[in-house]
Design brief:
5-stranded parallel sheet
Length: about 1000
């Protein structure tokens, strides 16, 4: 409408910034090569960020890129959730309607939370993964959209960004991996003070090598001179250049304002006050235009023309004339879509807004609110409730503001903008006491507390209470990742409930505190659950009562397994059915199924969980369906049914992946990795574990994934990697982790590493600590591998001088621990048999019959790695008995398995045994010429005769000085020999070299086996 009005304040010449523009255009070039680019542009207000961005976008347009710009909106503390992304995506939807529809296909309902044009925003589901799910969908949509074209996404004024926008930007910068996409974000550096919420994000992004940051400095005098020449279309007077440069200090916007003030005849244009400088050109406008400018200043970053017309109180002709004057003076600009107006620079808007009188500001905000209430079509539907809440709040009208703010909180929740929801709820609590009682009594929990369960009342007829807002704020803070804030809110609520006898609400808050304390790693959460149980004890059945019971049963299942947990879970099912809370009932039934399986009723437990999978899938309760898959796959693995576990895990992963339940997918993939490891599909197991690390949002699944990678590295003989992953697992779990399902595997890994590095004392210490802590009901699946690893280490260390002291006590600990463990299915019975044989080997009492029994127990299990190890021991026993032919078959079978799954350590052990026995391991070996006389195994490792003598002393625990004395060489020469030996053996230290020498029996023959008479096999 006013686009033809001439403006002269902006220089037609692009001054300076050549290096910065080159960096941006380089990013454009890289993006064209399918390498996504992330850029940050910072600088003080008025320094030229917008002009640089415009020049870059012109270059992008010239190269055929699709450009979309969105600006953060400053409308108060709550902000508009995802405002810059919504604006930019709306542009892409207009420019590429078919392409964006294809990129969003199948996920329109979720993506509508950011781009409402895609459809109606669904009410749920809401959980701690909701926001991450939305972010993942947005990132994948942008990648698909930028697959065949370069897309430039610019987000302006990041210093005003709402929390959800900051989190989404961080997610994009960290996860975008493909596509021709450039994301540019600008921010005011001078606004980012020490406590500014953008500051932590900038620090985080600085650590990402994929993000490039440009900081704009002020112009020097020569650049100011060029800018003035461009504005004036003539060479400026040098005295004028000096004056402008001194007063603007090189700020490009201030230079323009000083020139504009001079040209408009404002004698005060060169004022010392920055605020006066920004206001002086407004004050020379006609009175009607000044009043209009003040109204626009209070309307937000952009004001729609229809809204402005409704608020201004002018005829359309008067409004047009006032706008023409403001645009002509370069105070206001028409928006790019022609539907509204904004200030040419936000500094001017801020100065005008700050100049309003308090009563004047409240009056203007009231007029905006009244106009929007009278006509809902004046602004976009998705913005209406939040902007209305802001206007009523700044109008200082609590009666109107409280319902509006609560309605805005619901709108924020539906967009998964939980941080904004929390801020709005906190604002509502500030307004609570100021609002008239009649207004508060008309509010209903059913309207504003969706995730808060009813506590013995009808939420449709009971008035909303302040405690209900605290409950909703607790959940919003938890969903938004602000667990510390949520914990403080629960403390406030419980203090409030001290004077108000309401045990159900109090129990609900204690249950939330339990969840939060455990999530923050500040305890295990049991003390809080116990308080919740005390509060509901003896009360009639309710949803809260059922929730407390299922929470207690789930906690016990993970931390303190026992029969009481099953009783609590079954009572939770009963209570949930009585009050019609089917979702709570299904959650409790998952726990019941897992506990039944742990108690020995494997088939009954599996049937229960399968029924839950079917029902939750039917109802669309994907979160619960995911939990059912997690527990079901875990129990199948515990029962030795790894193939079934993998098949079901693949189905579960696909199910939760479609709904972008990232933590659920991480748990399912982690369970799949465990079963794939058992089946010897180690490359697939590695891939599944890495997928867990990639998608996992919480610490626990990531800890499990690191532990699984440590298992794989240890079995492959990659000790440094195993140690690294074990440390990572400990870091993920934190210092308060007490769950046996996590604690026992970590000790098993520590035992394995210590054994591989020859630290038998550490093996014994870890084993004793694990045994002292105990192996609770259902934890035999983790305990048997731990005991077997410790027994194998004792057997391999037999003959090691450092291992002799304490051996008898260590073996006694293992035997005592084994007696307490169940063997409900063949896989654990086989482990018990294997453990018994290794304990006998540690005492040189094992027989051929012992290892034959182990091999026969393991062979039907489809555990190739375990079977290969059993074949190794049986082959060793057969060779000692002189039975070469079956030993050769077993060695070849085990060697082929070790080759296939990638176990370097086992492969080397088998190769050395075959070499010592002069047996072929492959067809190529069989076709070779007859073997030469038996080769010394030490020479086979490439060691010289002197190095053999040194290694024998290293294996005996001798120091370099002792070796030097024994071999009549200097300590320095001994040190050189030791270094050469470590390099040839491929080990990291002396302990590992000693362990290898003893494990391979390099200096002693195998332990005696039959032909001594067979006797009854002693028990474990």
């Amino acid at each position: 409408m006013l686009g033809g009005v001439e403006t002269r304040s902006v220089s037609p010449v692009f001054v300076g910034r050549a290096d910065e523009l080159a960096v941006l255009t380089d990013a454009l070039t890289r993006a064209a090569g399918r390498e996504p680019q992330a850029m940050l542009i910072g600088g003080e207000a008025g320094v030229g960020k917008t002009r640089l961005t415009e020049e870059f976008l012109c270059e992008a347009d010239r190269r055929g890129a699709v450009v979309a710009v969105g600006g953060c909106v400053e409308i108060g503390a709550e902000g508009l959730p995802f405002a810059p992304f919504s604006t930019a995506l709306r542009t892409l939807h207009r420019l590429l309607p078919e392409e964006l529809a294809a990129a969003a296909a199948g996920q329109e309902d979720e993506l509508a939370r950011i781009l409402p044009e895609l459809g109606d925003t669904p009410r749920g589901p809401h959980d701690e993964e909701s926001t991450a799910r939305l972010f993942e969908l947005t990132a994948r949509m942008l990648e698909r959209l930028a697959a065949d074209r370069t897309v430039v996404l610019v987000l302006e004024d990041l210093h005003w960004a709402d929390t959800s926008t900051r989190h989404l930007l961080s997610y994009l910068f960290r996860t975008l991996g493909s596509g021709r996409l450039v994301v540019v974000a600008t921010y005011r550096a001078d606004d980012v003070h020490r406590r500014h919420p953008l500051r932590p994000l900038l620090a985080e992004l600085d650590r990402l090598r994929t993000v490039r940051r440009i900081e704009l400095s002020r112009f020097n005098r020569a650049e100011v001179r060029r800018q003035l020449a461009g504005i004036l279309a003539a060479q400026p007077d040098e005295d004028f250049v000096d004056s402008v440069f001194d007063r603007s200090d090189g700020n490009a916007f201030f230079v323009e304002e000083l020139v504009a003030s001079k040209e408009s005849g404002c004698r005060t244009g060169l004022t010392e006050s920055l605020r006066d400088l920004l206001l002086v050109r407004v004050e020379v406008l006609p009175d009607e235009t000044q009043r209009l400018v003040r109204i626009v200043a209070e309307g937000g970053s952009t004001v729609e023309y229809p809204l402005l017309r409704a608020v201004a109180g002018l005829t359309e002709d008067e409004l047009i004339e006032a706008l023409r004057a403001a645009v002509g003076a370069n105070i206001l600009l028409a928006t790019a879509d022609g539907d509204g107006y904004r200030f040419r620079h936000s500094l001017v808007r801020e100065a005008v807004s700050d100049d309003l009188l308090p009563g004047e500001r409240a009056r203007v905000n009231r007029r905006y609110a009244e106009a929007m209430e009278a006509d809902g079509s004046l602004v976009r539907a998705e913005e209406r409730v939040i902007r209305l809440a802001s206007f009523w709040y700044h109008a200082n009208d609590p009666a109107k503001a409280l319902p509006a703010v609560l309605a805005a909180s619901v709108a924020a929740r539906r967009r998964h903008a939980y941080s904004e929801q929390l801020r709005l709820l906190e604002r509502a609590m500030d307004l609570w006491d100021s609002a008239p009682e009649s207004v508060r009594e008309a509010l209903r929990p059913a309207d504003y507390t969706e995730v808060y369960p009813p506590c013995g009342c009808d939420p449709a007829t009971t008035a909303l209470r302040r405690i209900d807002l605290l409950a909703e704020a607790t959940v919003a803070a938890r969903y938004g990742g602000e667990r510390d804030r949520a914990l403080k809110i629960t403390k406030m609520a419980l203090r409030l409930l001290e004077d108000d006898r309401d045990p159900l609400r109090a129990a609900w808050f204690w249950t939330e505190r339990s969840r939060l304390i455990a999530g923050l790693g500040r305890g295990d959460g049991w003390e809080e659950i116990a308080k919740a149980q005390d509060l509901v004890r003896g009360l009639p059945p309710s949803q809260v009562h059922a929730e407390v019971l299922v929470r207690a049963a789930s906690w016990g299942m993970l931390h303190n397994p026992g029969p009481d947990n099953l009783a609590a879970a079954e009572r939770a099912v009963e209570y949930a059915r009585m009050v019609g809370a089917e979702e709570t009932e299904l959650n409790a039934r998952i726990t019941v199924g897992a506990l039944r399986a742990d108690s020995g009723d494997g088939e009954g437990g599996l049937a229960e969980m399968r029924a839950v999978v079917e029902r939750t899938t039917q109802l669309g309760l994907t979160m619960l369906a995911g939990r059912a898959h997690i527990n079901l796959t875990s129990q199948l693995e515990s029962l030795g049914r790894s193939h079934e576990a993998v098949e079901l895990a693949e189905q579960g992963a696909e199910l939760v992946r479609r709904s972008r339940l990232l933590d659920s997918e991480a748990w399912v993939c982690g369970n799949m990795a465990e079963s794939l490891y058992s089946l010897g599909r180690w490359d697939e197991a590695t891939e599944a574990a890495r997928r867990t690390l990639l998608v996992g949002q919480s610490a626990a699944p990531r800890g499990c994934a690191s532990a699984r990678l440590a298992y794989l590295a240890l079995a492959r003989g990659e000790l440094a990697e195993a140690a690294h992953q074990l440390a990572a697992a400990h870091t993920h779990y934190g210092t308060h982790e007490t769950q046996p399902q996590h604690r026992i595997p970590l000790r098993r890994l520590s035992i394995g590493l210590a054994a591989a590095e020859g630290r038998i004392a550490d093996v014994r210490a870890e084993t004793a600590a694990a045994a002292a802590y105990g192996f609770p009901l259902g934890q035999h699946r983790y305990a048997w591998p731990l005991l077997l690893a410790a027994a194998t280490a004792e057997a391999d260390a037999r003959g090691l001088p450092a291992a002799e002291a304490g051996r008898e006590a260590a073996l006694a600990v293992l035997r005592t621990a084994a007696r307490s463990l169940a063997t409900p299915v063949p896989v654990w019975a086989a482990h018990a048999e294997y453990l018994r044989a290794e304990l006998l080997r540690a005492e040189a009492r094992d027989t051929l019959t012992d290892w034959t029994a182990v091999e026969q127990a393991v062979r039907p299990l489809e555990r190739p790695y375990l079977l290969a190890r059993a074949c190794h021991r049986l082959a060793e026993a057969l060779l000692a008995a002189g039975d070469r032919e079956p030993a050769a078959l077993l060695l070849r079978e085990a060697y082929a398995t070790a080759e296939r799954i990638g176990s370097r350590m086992l492969r080397e052990d088998l190769a050395l045994l075959a070499q010592r026995a002069r047996l072929p391991l492959t067809d190529a070996d069989s076709a070779a010429t007859p073997p030469a006389p038996e080769t010394d195994p030490v020479e086979a490792l490439g060691l010289t005769s002197r190095e053999r003598d040194v290694l024998r002393l290293v294996a005996a625990g001798s120091t370099n000085r002792k070796i030097a004395e024994e071999l009549f060489i200097s300590p320095k020469t001994a040190s050189v020999h030791v270094s050469n030996i470590l390099a040839k053996l491929g080990v990291a230290g002396r302990g590992e070299a000693a362990a290898l020498a003893h494990r391979l029996r390099l200096f002693a023959g195998p332990a005696p086996v039959s032909p001594r008479p067979e006797v009854a096999r002693p028990g474990v």
